[in-house]
Amino acid sequence: MTSSLEADPPVDDLLPTTRRALLHRVAVGQSQGRAPSLVGAVARDGRLVWQGSRSCVDGHAPDADTQFRIGSITKTFTAVLVLRLRDEGLLDLDDPLEKHVPDTGVGEVTIAQLLGHGAGLRAEPPGDWWERTPGELRAATSDVLGDSALLHPAGRRHHYSNPGYALLGAVVERLRGEPWEDALRREILVPLSLDRTTAGPVAPHAGGWAVHPWADAMLPEPPQDLGVMAPAGQLWSTARDLCAFGTFLLRGDERVLSAASVAEMRTASVPPEPDDWAGGYGLGVQLARRGGRTLVGHTGSLPGFVACLWGNAEEGLVAVALSNATSGPAIGGITADLVTLVADAEPRLPEPWRPMGTFDKELLELTGQWYWGTNAFGLKLVADNGLELYPLRGAGRGSRFVATAGGHDADGGRGDGGSSGGNAVAERSWRGLDGYYAGETLRVVRRPDGSVSHLDLGTFVFTRQPYAPADAVPGGVDPDGWR
């Protein structure tokens, strides 16, 4: 069985010039990075549209089905397991670690803080270089923390922590009652048909190498089983499997995790490092900006290997690059370039415009121009009786809104006075999905005769005219009007 990614398309799915540019980027990356081999792949809308590789051994280049070790991309798989537990009601992201894994010494940090590397934990386990020593040296969870594991106040800053993901793996094992690897296979790898993603190498796989920094010479890197640190970096995978996993991270799969939950993973969780405002970290995924596009995914490295997966939701693109070198290839930049090359040369064709199938015709009276003070906004009716509010001039606050259950607030839609104006009734309401008004409630407030008086958006009043004397403008309007 192969991965859930669709079979390779005909060669004309990408233009010959684009395919040549992709191969050139991989070739340059392998040559300049002095890597024994480097393989790249690109998927679009769930189809593998390109793969290519270069190798130092003539006639023996890897392909999209050759395994490489993927290091910290493993963390994203672990994060999916944790989000599944949350969606099943077995934990809350605000739960303290102590609730599920007691006696760690850092039990006050939350699950969300661990997922986003905001718990303030140390970056590496104590003792010898853990990536190059047997996992048996760290037989228990306590062995990956040591003394003084908390370096920063929890929730205040991003500080990448490998032990934090060992703790999340322990959460998975406690709540599932089985090893992390078994839960991973049953809950993610099997449903997504990621048959070439495993905890240990399965042929055909690349061997890990170190390349001498001052000479064209190589040294084999022995692979180590990471033991309790496995949830932070154990996995081996292929470019094809990772393209399929990246596609899942862009659109979800109800067998594993909903589109809403993977979108939550892609949302920044804590401020980035002070010198890296071009990037960030969500819940188990890295975030980056490249050429005006948002990339989501993860990089990874272990002795002998570097790996990267980047996806862009707007273009439906996923790119993967894998190499069997401890260092050298700029793997994150190479992978980002694969996305950019396709997106720039062959931008995604927009879906044809089509009218909405059904909508509430009464909502049409709400559409058009509104004013918050003297600022002009447009209000548009979108799918599923949702609304979109956007500034008509320059930059400003805008959001998309989804209708609340039944179109009413939990209190039955009664106005509470204040900005809603006396006996006015808020008959319908919407909840903000994004932007400044995310989570805020938009209400339609009507006059006693049933006509629309104004919109109440988190106490902000939007009227049809700017400061009309009869409108319910907080603070009132000068009776002499404009002059």
- Give the SSE string: HEEEHHHHEEHEHHEEEEEHEEEEEEEE
Determine the fraction of residues in helical runs and give it as a percent range: 10-25%
Gross morphology: globular
What is the typical, i.e. mean, pLDDT? 89
Poorly predicted regions: 408-426
Task: Quote the beta fraction.
Answer: 15-25%
Largest sheet: 8 strands, antiparallel
Structural class: alpha+beta
Measured between the Cα atoms of the first and last residue, the distance is 76 Å
Q: Radius of gyration, Cα only, in angstroms?
A: 26 Å
Helix count equals 9
Strand order of the largest sheet: 12-13-14-15-16-17-18-19
Count all strands and give the number.
19
Structure, briefly:
The protein is α+β, with helices and mostly antiparallel strands and 483 residues long.
Q: How is this structure best described in words?
A:
This protein has 483 residues and is of the alpha+beta class. Helices cover 21% and strands 22% of the residues. The chain contains nine helices and 19 strands. The strands form four sheets. It has an eight-stranded antiparallel sheet, with no helix packed on it. A seven-stranded antiparallel sheet has the order 2-1-11-10-9-8-7, sandwiched between helices. Helix 2 crosses helix 5 (180-189) and helix 7 packs across helix 8. The longest helix has 17 residues, at 16-32. The chain is globular and about 85 Å long. The model is unreliable at 408-426 (pLDDT under 50).
